[in-house]
Amino acid sequence: MADVPMKWAAPTVAYTSYLAATLNSLANNTVDLGAEINNESNLCTFMDLELYLASLDLSAQTSPNVVIYLIESIDGGTHFDTGEDSVSAETDVPPADKILTQFGLRVNTGAEEKHAIKSVIPIPPGRFKLLLRNKTGVAFAAANNTLYYRTYNLKAVTA
After folding, report:
1. Is residue 75 part of a domain?
2. DSSP 3-state assignment of 27?
3. CA–CA separation, 60 and 73 (whole Å)
4. Distances (CA, A) of 112 to 19, 20, 105, 138
5. What is the 3-state secondary structure (H, E, C) of 46-71?
């Protein structure tokens, strides 16, 4: 059997704002749970995430980051694995095996916009939610913070 060349397919779900207003003023060590993403029809295998944070001063922080958890459902979206909104207690945060990715953020010397991208993140063929946890050491700005996503597949190159 011959090798079939593969290439990236055009995004199935275009660049989409996922979490926006709910990220504004999100306290340090607090989470924000997004709406359901339905991947049952598209069956995409990969996701890209882009995090935009308005003016944020991380100059006094050590290793600031934002953690993204994948909260799955395998029964059509009736029950989701775990994850609560707006919690900060360690006992209420999903376990480490639910971490999808992390955005490490540059400390710099003062307030600045933060832009971070993660690409080619594997996703399941069903329904899921993303939960964002602010681990920057400071609250997010009062406005203009957004997590975006898009989904896509690989496809065979045909002659």
Report:
1. yes
2. coil
3. 39
4. 20, 18, 11, 13
5. EEEEEEEEEEECCCCCCCCEEEEEEE
Identify the residue whose tokens are 């307030």.
111
Residue recorded with tokens 């360690």? 90
Q: Is residue 29 part of a domain?
A: yes
CB 151 within 8 A of CB 39: yes
Q: pTM for this structure? A: 0.90
DSSP-assigned beta bridge partners for residue 52:
115, 146
CATH number (domain holding residue 101): 2.60.120
Residue 80 neighbours by CB distance under 10 Å: 17
Cβ atoms of 69 and 88 within 8 Å: the answer is: no
pLDDT in tens, 48-102: 999 999 999 999 999 999 999 999 998 888 888 776 666 666 667 888 999 999 9
Residue 99's closest CA among 125, 135, 60? 135
What the block records as the tokens of 10 is 């055009």
User: What is the total count of domains within the chain?
Assistant: 1
Number of Cβ atoms within 10 Å of the Cβ of 24: 17
4: in domain: no
